[in-house]
Amino acid sequence: MNPTVRAEIITIGDEILFGQITDTNTQWIGAELTGIGIRPVRKTSVGDKKEDIISAFTEASKRVDVIIVTGGLGPTKDDITKHTFCDYFGSQLKMNEEALALVTEFFAKRGRPMTELNIQQAALPDNCTYIPNLWGTAPGMWFEKDGVVYVSLPGVPYEMKSLMQFEILPRLKAHFVLNIIQHKIVKTIGIGESFLAEKIAPWEDALPDHIKLAYLPHFGQVRLRLTGTGSDQQLLDSQLQEQVDLLVPQIEEHVYGYDSDELESVIGALLTKHEATIGTAESCTGGFLAQRLTSLAGSSRYFEGSVVSYSNFLKMKLLGVQEETLETYGAVSEQTAREMAEGARKVLNTTYAISTTGIAGPDGGTPEKPVGTVWIACATPTETVTQLLKLSNIRNINIELTTTYALNLLRKTILKAEKEEV
Hints:
It is a single chain. The strands form four sheets. Strands 2-1-3-8-7-6 form a six-stranded mixed sheet, sandwiched between helices. Strands 14-13-15-16-17 form a five-stranded mixed sheet, with helices on both faces. A four-stranded antiparallel sheet has the order 10-11-9-12, with helices on both faces. The chain is built from 16 helices and 17 strands. It has 422 residues and is α/β, with parallel strands linked by helices. Strand 10 (211-218) and strand 11 (221-230) form a beta hairpin. The protein has three domains: 5-175, Molybdenum Cofactor Biosythetic Enzyme, Chain A (3-Layer(aba) Sandwich), CATH 3.40.980.10; 180-258, 2-Layer Sandwich (Alpha-Beta Plaits); 263-421, Maf protein, CATH 3.90.950. This is CinA-like protein. Residues 8-175 form the MoaB/Mog domain.
């Protein structure tokens, strides 16, 4: 196996550090580098200060083989990346005639005048390899120093992505002898990260050296990402699948999908398979459950509708929840969740219906029912299944978690019905 080629991604711009824009470039670049066998090991964000940028370059050069830099290539005074590269490499700016011709053509095609600032975008460090940008005015640049490749790209996402796809990735593949980096993801739900780790510890300890495991928790789910490195694609795929086949029987009740599967897509496939339909009755989730179910194209085949009944009046009027139930047990109760789900199934005329009722927070709790107390229910033609959730005191987290747990309750209910049919 070849030595692993390592990369660092450096984003430049005060606007990123100030939180004025979201850095989506790093995530995309990381995925693309991994796809060709280069392992990203660090990402760094630096403001528009020359000394800090040079320090970031110097530190990165000690630990990686490739440094991808985005941002700071615009025509204004705060865009200092080119000048910083000149200082770092001991070079000077020189007008690049090929770049100038491309910038001139760019403005001519659009019928726009070209200012002196625009012209200066074609001035590049005299020791860089010019990378033409057919999608904007800021050229890309390629440098090499002490065995490290430095790539400078514009920060505008569509320009950066086009340069990476058509110019940089092919050049990196030609420059380095690369391994294959392959991921296999097992998606679990209903078990915490620490419990999961304890359960599969013997299997994890026995993993071969070239396969690594990462735990990626997110709102009630834990993704188990296996990353294999090798030089033979077919062999690596086989080895990863072998490890998945050893893992899954140990945690089968918690596994809902693999790789790009999402909980809602798995549920959609199950509903479609059985020609079943679904509706929702939501209180504390405020429609978020319906949004998740309808986020997929084709969801109209199985999703009928939703009743968002925030008030007790609408719980009674639209879903048929009994006034006595609300007075005796309260809106946040197993009984109310049950009647909401059963009412929704009748009103929406669906095979299944799921309901949510709870105290999302940050206020509204009592000693008996603190913030984070939630009941969910799933009604079928033959039974209604309920579940009590005891969540956090943070509203948005509670809404996300309730939705995820409700979807999982639906998934398990469908699978149970599937087994009973056999």
